[in-house]
Amino acid sequence: MSNDRYVVGVDFGTLSGRALVVRVSDGAELGSAVYEYPHAVVTDALPAGVALPPEWALQVPQDYREVLRVAVPQAVRAAAVDPAAVVGIATDFTACTVLPTTADGTPLCELPAYADRPHAYVKLWRHHAAQGQADRINELARRRGEAWLPRYGGLISSEWEFAKALQVLEEDPEVYAATERWVEAADWIVWQLCGSYVRNACTAGYKGIRQDGRYPSPEFLAALAPGFARFVVDKLEHPIGQLGEVAGRLTAQAAAWTGLPEGIAVAVGNIDAHVTAPAAQATEPGQLVAIMGTSTCHVMSSTVLREVPGMCGVVDGGIVPGLWGYEAGQSGVGDIFGWFTRTGVPAAYEAEATERGISVHELLTERAAGQAVGEHGLVALDWHSGNRSVLVDHELSGVVVGQTLATRPEDTYRALLEATAFGTRVILETFRDSGVPVSEVIVAGGLTRNRLLMQIYADVTRMPLSVLASEQGPALGAAIHAAVAAGAYPDITTAAKAMGRVARAAYLPDEERAAAYDELFAEYLTLHDYFGRGTNPVMKRLKEIRRSAMAAAGRKEN
Amino acid sequence: MSNDRYVVGVDFGTLSGRALVVRVSDGAELGSAVYEYPHAVVTDALPAGVALPPEWALQVPQDYREVLRVAVPQAVRAAAVDPAAVVGIATDFTACTVLPTTADGTPLCELPAYADRPHAYVKLWRHHAAQGQADRINELARRRGEAWLPRYGGLISSEWEFAKALQVLEEDPEVYAATERWVEAADWIVWQLCGSYVRNACTAGYKGIRQDGRYPSPEFLAALAPGFARFVVDKLEHPIGQLGEVAGRLTAQAAAWTGLPEGIAVAVGNIDAHVTAPAAQATEPGQLVAIMGTSTCHVMSSTVLREVPGMCGVVDGGIVPGLWGYEAGQSGVGDIFGWFTRTGVPAAYEAEATERGISVHELLTERAAGQAVGEHGLVALDWHSGNRSVLVDHELSGVVVGQTLATRPEDTYRALLEATAFGTRVILETFRDSGVPVSEVIVAGGLTRNRLLMQIYADVTRMPLSVLASEQGPALGAAIHAAVAAGAYPDITTAAKAMGRVARAAYLPDEERAAAYDELFAEYLTLHDYFGRGTNPVMKRLKEIRRSAMAAAGRKEN
Description:
homodimer, alpha/beta, Nucleotidyltransferase, domain 5, 2 domains, seven-stranded mixed beta sheet, about 40% helix, globular, EC 2.7.1.16 (chains A, B), nucleotide-binding (chains A, B), ATP-binding (chains A, B)
């Protein structure tokens, strides 16, 4: 035991940061601690009191440092290991979560001159107030036929670096002018740890429109807004670090914060979803990891570069160096189930769940689990939050077909579970049809607890389903990166084999159910194309009608 | 006052009979009484203990006589009128509710030899176990191009006289052989009152396939089943009475039951929906009455005979003598709202409704009423119980399009209200497009209490909505028939003008809302045709899949 070495992975989520101490030799998770951000998500008003418009979502960077100061030492104590035996630390972050800093990495919001300026703060991934800017970026890129656009399924998100930066320029030119670096929080936290700024390949590619070593051109940027022409050159461009590499060494100050030895390896930053791949031992080409929560993020490495319709992005070294990292997504999954459970289930169900000490989800799942495939007579489209992959259309919406007076809440619930599985199957088939093979599906995230859902996914996709066997996938993945950065393993794949954990083929497809689902999937596909590919754009028109009606009534969209 | 004369209308519903005493001169409703059938609807086992298969729904004829014995004298007492001043009585009945009797009108189930034979009892309108027989009738009629089929929108119902009789023949030939008359309950109760059997033109036409004075031919019947060839000749055919005519005079026995004077006029029988037309003063050509309850029945007279697609039936003198009576229907209306309210509304809503002492319907209506047209972003199809008019397809089912995570129960509720209004508009437009003008819409039934629903119907149809101003439309309509039979008025229309009551143009369409609804109706129509006219028969396939799945799992459809 005295020879054991350890690494720390720190997962920066939306509301809290989690530190996890892991043994280098086998990935054993020895202790963890969570620190909730005191400012959580800032949506209504700045700490200084300034009110925020709708769709804003900010964070306060000091909250992130506190995770290092509080959660890391707590986790080390909980693990009961000698801090001196910790050889590396790595982080992962939500993305695109981005902030303006000075050249030395000081967040503008920490300068007294800017403390009351909303645009000086961290823009959280779910800050959605730059939609206008994103629309213009997309429109211009389509018109100019920008080569990078197909790498993102034809659509740049309002959540990403360029749309958010353009919003700063147009709404607070002073803050924009004072911004010397436009930094992903994933890289900023690494900068805090090692004192040097390294831009990681993952966020630069997926969120920063870096493709083939280049960014959108000055001409493109100038066409968006004259003052934006030098954005890349002045504020964004920076040497790239590959995943698993050393970004630098733990500074004395960061050693003091964390209680870890000064000088240990600090790994290049990463995104929470993508770093889950090594935790699930899914770094080989064709191993698709679905991180299933309120939404689902799919990440997969491949040896080939193809333009797969409707991907969120394909990035060189986006998951592991040397391979093309593909990302796809389903905009709504768990949040659809949550919405239905909150708004569509009668009192008697809630009462029974309460009485039995289970959740309404569990009750509905239990009742739905006894059904044969197709028994509910329904087929649904899982587009309540739009459709990211493969239709890339946030104006789509949900559908349920087949309800009768005999339809019960558990019927609709099961139809919604199935709809998201059908959505996953569309993504898998699109990968294959585009020449990007998928050899295995590994699931991670909170929804893996629902065994019915998992079995439905296995049956619908007709593939064995492997399950990440850790409750702390991202933090474990970060710890694996830390071990690689510390030199304990030659590369991420080798480290993942030793330290990752997966229950291989935990759910096997049943051929009879799979055949029955083929019939329902055919119905889903017909409706998918009818509503989603322009035959009947009723959903867009309904949203337009809704917006007009609400505007005329003087109401904000809820 | 001493010169006032009175009539009694008796409305035989599904669970009870209601007697209403009405003043002849002005239709004033003076007193009423309800008698609940002791046997209600017999679905599980006969009174004698014999178990019934699924889909059966029987009644016990003695329950109907008890209405005469109990409710009629009670109503007369409640009205505080002199029984001697009552000049006529009329009845209306659910239909097709039909029973086998001997030549003197004795129900076979009242003969000890048949008391334990299910087929000897009254088959209530919603006995649905003759679907197989109905399917064969339709298939054969289509193949032979029977001229009467288009008069029924191309589809005979399993609820009607022929399907139910064929079921008796095939499942209990002895009972069939013992059946000397196959009698509508609407006529049987009149027979009980006046001692003579008169077959009314309304049920004979709508439920008995009587068209142009003829029934389906012996050749047709023989092709269905050899033993069925003489069904019309032996058991069904009988002299026809027109609506409002005298069927006979109250017998001594019926006078003893009811406490009414022997020898007063007994009117020809009628159907509850159709008799509502005179109560609503809607007997002129083009006045469409929508009786809105769990389902909606539309009745309208016209001078012209046209084959209107998807009608339930068109019958010479079906509503008033001398005009063509059209009947259309929406299979599900109030029962869709009821289903949603029972199964799709969360505990918090139920708690608020309870606390405020209102129904969940009222709460949802109140919340939905504040919305602008289209604000909910939804469009629904109202086919949870299939679609009668104009698609004539009971394999269709419900759809909701446009749900997002912001969709609330009141949004879906309002979309369902609107869907039924769109369904009504399709019927109105089909009448007009077929050359049968609709000049006015009058609504009746329990749903008229929902003011939001009424306003939506006015806005969606862009027509002023008149409302029957009586809570007891069918019984009032029957009383009007009684007055005509008693000779107090020359015809039903004249009597209706004096005795019926309607709030004319109680709801006026708002042009702005009507224009907004035009947009949503266009979406409804597109989906209506896509799902309902064969472009995508997904609903039929889902029902087929459901049936197979349930059969394989050994479960009965619920």
